[in-house]
Design a protein that fits this description.
The complex is a heterotrimer of chains A (145), B (661) and C (319).
Chain A: E1 10-15, H1 19-28, E2 37-42, H2 50-58, E3 63-68, H3 79-97, E4 104-108, H4 114-129
Parallel strand pairs in A: 1-2, 1-3, 3-4
Helix pairs in contact in A: 1-4
Chain B: E1 3-8, H1 12-15, H2 20-28, E2 33-39, H3 45-58, E3 62-67, H4 70-83, E4 91-95, H5 97-101, H6 107-125, E5 134-137, E6 142-145, H7 149-160, E7 165-168, E8 183-184, E9 189-190, H8 191-204, E10 208-211, E11 214-222, E12 225-232, H9 247-251, E13 255-258, E14 266-269, E15 271-272, E16 284-285, H10 291-295, H11 300-304, E17 317-323, E18 325-328, E19 332-334, E20 351-353, H12 354-361, E21 382-389, H13 404-418, E22 423-428, H14 438-448, E23 451-454, E24 457-461, E25 473-479, E26 484-490, E27 492-497, E28 499-501, H15 505-511, E29 539-541, H16 551-571, E30 573-576, E31 581-583, H17 593-597, E32 603-606, E33 611-614, H18 624-628, E34 634-636, H19 641-658
Helix pairs in contact in B: 2-6, 3-4, 6-19, 7-8, 7-16, 12-13, 13-14
Chain C: E1 2-5, H1 16-29, E2 32-35, H2 46-50, H3 52-68, E3 73-76, H4 79-94, H5 96-107, E4 119-122, H6 123-138, E5 149-152, H7 172-179, H8 198-201, H9 203-219, E6 224-227, H10 230-238, H11 240-247, E7 255-257, H12 258-265, H13 283-294
Amino acid sequence: MPEDSYEPKIIGFLCNWCSYAGADGAGMARRKQPPNVKIIRVPCSGRVSPELVLRTFMQGADGVMVLGCHIGDCHYGNGNHRTAKRFPVYHRLMDYMGIEKERLWVQWVSASEGQLFAEAVTQFTERLRQMPPMRGKLTTVPSPD
Amino acid sequence: MKIGVYTCHCGGNIAGTVDCEAVTEWAGRLDGVEVSREYKFMCSSLGQELIEEDIKEYGLDRVVVASCSPHMHEPTFRNACQRAGLNPYFLEMANIREHASWVHKDRSEATEKAMALTAASVARVRYNEPLFARLSPVNQNTLVVGGGVAGIQAALEIANAGYHVYLVEREPSIGGHMAQLDKTFPTLDCSACILTPRMFEVGNHENITMLTYSEVEEVSGYIGNFEARIRVRARCINQELCTGCGVCEEKCPAKVVDTIFEAGLGRRKAVYRPFPQAVPKFPVIDQDNCIWFQKGKCRACEKFCPTDAIDFEQDDRILEIEVGNIIVATGYDAFDARRISQYGYARYPNVFTALEFERMTNAAGPTEGNVVLRDGETQPDSIAIIHCVGSRDVRYREHCSRVCCMYSLKFAHMVHEKLPNATVYNFYIDIRTPGKDYEEFYHRLLEEGTVFIRGRAASITDATLTPEEEGKLIVTAEDTLVGRQRRIPVDMAILSTGLEPRHDSHEVARIFSISCSREGFFKERHPKLDPIATMTDGVFIAGCAQGPRDIPDTVVQGAAAAARVLSIIGKGEVEIEAAKAEVNDLTCVGCQMCIESCPYSAIEHLEERQKARVIEALCKGCGTCVAACLSKSITLYHFTDQQLVAQMRGAMDALFELVPA
Amino acid sequence: MKYAYYPGCSAESSASAYDATSQMVAAALGLELEEIKDWNCCGATEYFSIDSLPAYALVARNLALAGRQGTSEVIAPCSACYVNLKKVDERMGDYPQLNSDVNEALAAGNLSYTPGSVRARHLLDVICNEVGCDAVSEKVVRPLAGLTLVPYYGCYIGRPEGGFDDVENPQTLDRLLKGLGATVPDYSLKSSCCGGHMTQIGTEVALGILRGLIDLAAKLGADAMVVACPMCQLNLDVYQNQLNSHFGTTYRMPIVYFTQMMALALGMEAAELKFEEGLVPAGPMLEKWQAAEASPQPRKKKSKKALPMPEPLDGGDSG
């Protein structure tokens, strides 16, 4: 690895029914991808609160992914509508904290779109590689309790 | 806290890319980890016993299994914990196969990721709480959607076991595509002859409520306890009075092309039964084409009906039913051959689709089984059968439709039988005959003298070049075995159209809360091990709605779906996911943001106390309310803030340790 | 709407009838055409294979000039010109290096072009999709009743994919001619190649292609073949005699531009529409039309036994 490059640390919050299954599908089909995204399973992308996203950045993540079902295909009917509506809130809070909005990646990935998932991981990782690392930007790190 | 960590090799599936020994050693040093072991196959009984013994011996109170996706084996390891007396929700999995070993090449990268994922799960599992799945009784009724051979099979299996089935079919009769077919490959037995007894059995079964000309409009609830709203469209026939004598059909003056059952090759009346053996025997009045409904006069059917069974005033009926399980077997659409202009369907009269040809060779069809050109009289001397129309073509459908090769061979045989002097050309890419006695059937056709040309047909044209081509359709193709362009003049061309998802499969999927592949076939829970179930418990899929398949495979799936339903009914009760939301009464400010966010209206506002309350029976555990709550007063069990933050921190801390910034 | 008009080289020679009638028809339909000042040749097909950068620059110059005239759409009656204009615009947008190279060349003439700023349109596209076949039909004063006209689009309309009509079974010209009152058979070679410059390379091959095209039209009872491209017109018309002597055939198929037939139906005088520029005389076709105007034709009856024909799809979508 060259001196001036670094590997972005990314946390991905994936809904259980579509996107997590899509990531599994990428695995089954052996769709190669960079190892940077660490996946956390949530029931629905609507569960991902703005605080959770901010906390992840505060913990030093260089990027956060929120992936859910396509609009209309949500396992819970319209949980992902909330995610879509919350998008500007994520951005506003990030802006307030001085975090570039390019560090958040929200996308709909269905259970059959393993390839799309692998592409998203690749593109997002590539994008973050072009940006400086986050560590040090945010000093206060609250405990999980 | 005593955590046990178990790293699975999955043979070479994980160990091939991930250094499992290093992961095990690393995990052993994590805070609170009492034992860390690796094993070749954690899901084997020996692997499970390993966990059970450790729980007892070391008094483990938390377990992390680093292996495959929780979608595969979470139930396995939860059961193992339970057997050893540990609450199953004290188990956490780290997915180091689908999310690590299978998607990375570099061993050190994959190992680091596996370590971080394992550390995240270890950090999270500390905060896991014991939860108890609620048991809910199972309604013994089943809803089967689609009255094709898959739905028929499923309905009969369940009904014969003594349980009630609602069978819903969109068309006026059950039977599906199979009822349209003439012969079935490779045995050549008559499709109607083998299907109609099953249809009658369904129609007369005491345990089956058959709802034809009906559609499911809405489904709510969960496994064991679904509610469905069904629209029973007005037949305009009083079924109490109708004897199915057919006089109305005979007297009706309105004739229209039947694009459904006759595939456009024949006509039917405005009051009709799709075919003589239709089940139920009652006709329907097609209001779009009925002269009375369109122009306000006629009523010929009413005048001639001997039992006064015509009822123009009938309205659609809405039926609300309660069922425990649902089987969706809605079938397929045939590829629309008009989309490929260069094959000239709907341009040249003597280009036919496969379904048209099925109807043509059928003795009960529009030509009474005679193979003739579009003029209805002339027998063709030469016929080209074009394989893979719409299938195996990235411009249309990439998939192989699986049945076209075999039915094309069947067509060739039918022509040889009916027109012994006619020449039959099959233009194919590959001949695919994967089935019992299928390859043998292909050999039989080779002996019968069918001409096989290996090459996808490029076009069908009426532009002739030589006197021999005059008045014929010319099929052009590159014969890849001979290595040259061929122009074959024929009298008739049959397009072996592929099977594609129903045009409305995405909407149907939404009604049943299941998902589709990008092209529109319903998605199974697991492509190999659970092709019948979906991600929604209690909703099963069967037949071509899941993917193209032939009749035997469809019947197998229908029966398999029934078996799954029967096992749930037999058990009598189901475990309902324990991950529900709960409002903290002390901190709730009654702002009602959660109420607005809930997709299930499962939160109520207690007016007098100005507090929100989750209605447990309605909550599905999506957690949308948690993210919407401004006062952090809602907890979603098993996905609490503590748990998710701990998991995230576990991953981040591990990453900074493994790959310092 | 105001359009830039790019006549193309052939408009000044072999296709002057097309040029003249295009302008007449446009005026009658209220299309305002402003000829690009100082336009140059589009380079046809050959130049792109010889030296691509000058070839692109040559076409881009016309787009730049059209833009400088303040128009955002340019109409080309010639299919080859149309495809070249469209291709260069798209490629410059897709390839930044090409864009900067071409603009560097244009700068020498104090010009510049931003990809996407001028949209290339075929005259047939504008007439059928902007004016609309129905609107044209309403303006018809002398229907082409009694004439059987075969629409021949040539290979460029619809190709490359993503043009304004289907690749394999285009419909615009069919609809237009039906709207003019003509009988329009389904001509299955409608989007086949006319041979292009194959006449210069392999005469035998070219004549075979042309013969197939005319032969099918003749079998369909065509009184004329209607084209939308000067190259198609030239090949079918000029080589008809040669192919007759080569194959021993006796075709006398007039090859006319769709704008000529439109002008006729819109009430303009045949004598002003340069039909005489075609080598195969259009006279018999015009006489037949005038005779048919007096006596309408009876319709054929279908056999009772005939099986129903499937409804055509509204436009194909073959890839």
